[in-house]
Amino acid sequence: MANVDLYKMDGSVVGKIELNDEIFGIEPNPDVVHQAVVQYLANQRQGTQSAKTRAEVRGGGAKPRPQKGTGRSRQGTIRAPQWTGGGVIFAPKPRDYSFKLNKKVKRLALKSVLSNKVMDGKMLVLEELKLPEVKTKEMIKVLGNIKVDKALLVLGDESNNEVLSARNIPGVKTCGVNTINVYDILRYDYLVVTKDAVDKIQEVYI
User: Fold this and answer.
1) What is the reported pLDDT for 158?
2) This prediction's pTM
């Protein structure tokens, strides 16, 4: 099993924690990770873009000029796509971009990025992360103690104090075990996980 340092909030190392190799020690699969990222981004799209075709644009009922005799090109309506104010060719319409991935594929992608963070030494485990009050300065101090800046904080039990203390720090995001995703893990340089969050991840994804 992989061993990583277990940190206290003051930055001191209090020991080691063993990580399950089935989750944190597999060979990363880049293809599956790519599929998971594409799916995540596709599911974020609203798909509300819309433009009018020539059939939907108002006006243009009368023929703008005679068919013959002017020496100019034939035109049937001023709402044709080549006219200013005309319709759009192949106009985009509202649609759903989301698609599904198999559960096993999503789990493999998550295990791949978690294992990659451990291999790169970019995953830090905190013994606990508890703040008595909402204080951004205290959260910045904790992150400074463990020498991370752009980080995803994974909390076992999402406490309002920790979430609110971190929300205004640039480059820092908090999430729970049930909302962790491949895209966020890749997006942030460091993955900071509390010990109880590690236990929950190993319970859910083993």
Assistant:
1) 66
2) 0.84
